[in-house]
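Title: Prediction job returns without error message
Component: structure pipeline
Severity: low
Priority: P3
Assignee: unassigned

Description:
Job completed but the reporter wants confirmation the result is attached to the right record. Sequence as submitted:
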Amino acid sequence: MEESAPITWGLLERMMSTGTQSKLDIWSDRDGDVIMEDSNSDEEAYWQEIGEGDLEGSVVSGPTNTAEFNRNKLEIQHTAKILLRKTTVMSIMMRSMNQRSNTLQSLLGMFLQLTHTPQKVIETLERMGILVSVNAIHAVTRSLSAQTHQHLQSLGWSLLASYAYYNFDVDLKTHQHKIENSMESLKHLTSGLIFPLQHNVSKEDLRCSEELWKKSPLNIQAELPPKKGWLDLLGLHVDTPDSLGLSHHDRFNSWKFLSDLISYGPPCFSQFCGRLHEPEAIEAIPITKMPIIATSAMDVSNSTVAGNIQSVVDLLKQGGIRDPTVIDDPEMPDISEYVVLFHGDLGMGERLQSAQQRQGIENTPWNCLQHVVFVPGLFI
């Protein structure tokens, strides 16, 4: 804005910067210390959240004393307020000349929509030029909802998605109280998330539904192999000792002992801090940024087994996956041969296990919940 209309920007700067020192609410006592009036706690929390620093290209360096720090702090806050007001005024002027120049109005309209602002307030601000119309806000909301639906479906059809759901309660207040619904304001709902599987996971890695179901104790027709104990797990990854006869566990224990000795031992050992390296990484999982997409809330209470079954079906439906024996869609992938990971707490895992045990007598993989694999975590 400053580059496109420097004269107008400078005019607003001079108009809003008049009497800056009188508006900072700062004065000095006899010793020259800066005294500030008690400000609003919400405003203080706002400035602490957004931080302070680079404003219009100027950076205030660290002060040498408390008085200078207080003065610089209030000057930065006052400069930010002026910048916000200038941007608002310029946005209103730009929209009055071009209806397509409505970036600020659109963002503010979506914010008020998300915070459930009354429609009368939105209409009043729209007439003042601060917001777009209510119809425009609803159109943007529908457009974003459609884009999210398409994204969820494309992710679900890739069969490389993981699902998570959890329950939450909403107290729905009513304006007209009646005897029959006076105690029914609490609503039990279920929220869900969908996120892609990372670290080069392929569809073939998840194509093991039938093999797992044959060996599952929840399958009443399964021929179970002999059970194994936890000692058998030790043979899965053999820990070969190095040239000094130390295994991975021994080397980590040695590093931990040296680290504690340097950190908490006698002060003379602190001189070896620079010689202690990080512990050895064994098959380290690389850190990746994982996009997480929120699904629509479901009118389901997952405190029961039936509620968990419905939650799984609804989540897969939002991901574009349905019963292949019912829906005849050639583009929809058949999930019968694949597994889907569902995250949740231990109570959810127990109900899913009970659901699979209950549905084990069904004829189709979909009705048996054969594709469901519970993974504890994420919401615990």
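Comment from assignee: result matches the submitted record. The radius of gyration is 31 Å.
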